[in-house]
Specification:
The complex is a heterodimer of chains A (208) and B (556).
Chain A lengths: L7 H72 L8 H15 L3 E12 L10 E15 L2 H14 L3 E11 L15 E15 L6
Antiparallel strand pairs in A: 1-2, 2-4, 3-4
Helix pairs in contact in A: 2-3
Chain B lengths: L1 E6 L4 E7 L2 E8 L3 H13 L5 E5 L4 E8 L4 H15 L6 E8 L7 E8 L3 H12 L4 E6 H8 L9 E6 L5 E8 L2 E9 L5 E3 L5 E3 L1 H17 L9 E7 L1 H10 L6 E7 H7 L12 H10 L14 H61 L7 H18 L3 H13 L4 E11 L14 H11 L8 E10 L6 H17 L5 E6 L18 H8 L1 E9 L6 H16 L1
Parallel strand pairs in B: 1-4, 4-8, 9-14, 14-15
Antiparallel strand pairs in B: 1-2, 2-3, 5-7, 6-7, 9-10, 10-11, 12-13, 16-17, 17-19, 18-19
The chains are: A alpha+beta (208), B alpha+beta (556).
Chain lengths: 208, 556
Amino acid sequence: MKPDDVEWDLVQWSLLIAVLCAVLGFAAVSFSGGMLEEAYNGYQRHRNQLNQVARDYRAAQDDRVLYEQYVQRFAELQARGVIGEEQRLAWVELLREINDQLKLPVLRYEIHPRQSLPIDNPQPRDEKLLAYETSMTLSLGVLHEGDLFTIEQLLRERAQGLFETRGCEIVRTERSATVQFNPRRANLETHCQLSWYTVQIERSAESR
Amino acid sequence: MRRLLFCSGNRMLAFDWSGGHFGNAACFSPDDDGYREFEQYLLDVPRRPVTLLVDLIEEEFHADNVPFVHGRDRKAVLDRALAKYFRTSELRAVRLQGRERGGRKDQQICVSGLGSATILKRWLEIIKRNRIALRGVVSLPLVGELLLPLIKAEKQRVLLVSQQSPETLRQSFYDHGHLKLSRLAHHRSELVSSDADGSPTVYANHMLADIRNTLLFLKSQRLLQRSERVELCVIGKREIYAPLEAELSGDESVNCRIVDSAELARKLGLRGALPTPFCEGLFGQLVCRRRDLANHYAPWSMRRHFAHTLARRGLWMASAAVLLGAGGLTGHNLYNASLYTDYALQARTEVSRYRQVLSEQTQESTRFNLPPDAIKSTVKLVSGLQAYSRASPLHLLGDLATVVDRHPQVEIHTLSWLTHFDDNVLPGSRALSSRAEMQRQAERQKADRDGGEFEIARIGGGMTGFGNNYRQSVELFHDFVDALRHSGHYSRVLVEKTPFDMNPGAGISGDSGDSGAVELRSRATFSLLLARPVAGPTDGAAQVDSGAASGARRQG
């Protein structure tokens, strides 16, 4: 059929309706498609947020487990002065208390400058851990070995900090002489090297 | 709803057909009144397409053979055949009817058409003028091919006889389902009339004469063999045509059977009675029921308005489809959009809930203003440092005292003790070094510190209570050393100096007088080097045990 053969008045309404339907259909589909896309984008956005917050929540749960596992120990260490600034004054006072209690013939101490201690432990994510060592030379004159045990026990119980005995030299004052029972005279001379450890946490700028 | 027109030459019948039922029947005579009424009838429903079924005396059928070719050649051959028989007529058609079995195996065709369309001209003009959609012009004898399977006559040669008007008799000859020849006999009077009591009577003699003439013509055309017995099917009311069957019962060349029109109508699915006493209703039912049977003769120019109707219907259907599709898609989109909106709302609620819980947890864990991993790392670091602090010279002194208690001849004068990762380090100048210094030293030496640390002690002492018996002194010392080695506390027990050193490399001198006692005591001194791993937090005993075992192995 050629275009000239077409009698448009016979098909014009059908054609018009078809075009109208096509336009309406296209508009409806476009509009609803836009709504769908918008809703889907919104859903994706919220789902991403949900995924993110769920990850955060899981991480927080893990952190919570960690926190509950270590927080008490951490508090104890902080209370003992292991974490934070070194407690030189407390150490000196403790030695004086021990001496007052035991009445030792000799108790001398020498605290050396603090130095940083290299650490192999993994660092936390945001903070930085710094370990320090403070050497202390402790010279004691004691009546018998039992005093040494007592001193060590008192230090371990009362000391504000964590210490390690790095080295020790115990010498009988006179090898040939018999043991003296004079409380002002030492039978054993002891020179010990202690290392006091403190840990400091350098906070990141964000956490500050 | 379909509209069927039936033209038998002397009248035009019109029916509306719907679901196997004919209604709204009308009859129009070929005069001015008839044409006017016909026009009015059509214009009552101007948009309804019509199908024109023709049963005219002007219709001719020619069985012919043409070469068997394809494509354009076939079209050319068929066009030539059409032009040969119907040069001037527009209403014509050619049908392929299989191939010959012998010879060139030519294509068998049936060329049919209206030799003169004068009778139809006015009717077609009215249809065209009023822009009525003409589905097609259908030939009744050709439609008859579709009737053959229903009367079980499609696989033989059969002469089908039917009456579509009172004065005419249509006789069509089919060979295995294909129309070969058809003729319409026109009589001056009606072939069926009513007798005195009103019952219909057929003029059997007139009909028999027509049938016999047709059979003679078929034989003369060699469409039938001379001695061949042909199947004669008469369609009509059985009670009317029964005399015909009786007349032909003795004829050897004909096997006559009456096919009852009412029964056939039921087979065709016609609901209700036939619209007329004749057979045009049967053929009309076939035409209306078969969608593929739309046209035989009408050229495209006549069907132009039907094309418009089809286009209009197509556009309506397309519009409906577009609307339905768009509606469905829109509904789908909106439904999904509402689902996604709900999901988003749920997700937002979940996010708020998570954030609330997180906020509460964060408030709980802000006591130290430190993240848990920092707390954990700090505790781990301090735990490591605490492991170092367990080592003490007093533990070693206690273990040593246990052995010395069992050897009263042994005196301990000095104890130098240190911890180091290298158990070959000797207590001395480096004994007072710090851990930081030791670690730096280990890094400089690239030492492997995985083996842990050791307590290393140098013991200085002397032997007493052995009189002047050097040998006993040495034996007592060796007993002491053996006791240390077997105590299980040390991984290494090394004698640096024995009392009364009898090493061949060392010099020796003596004083056997009274003044020799002091000298003897000074020469009965010894020096031992002890080492053992620093005990761990839980497996300290195991480490000591394994260290002692390894020490014993070294000694062994």
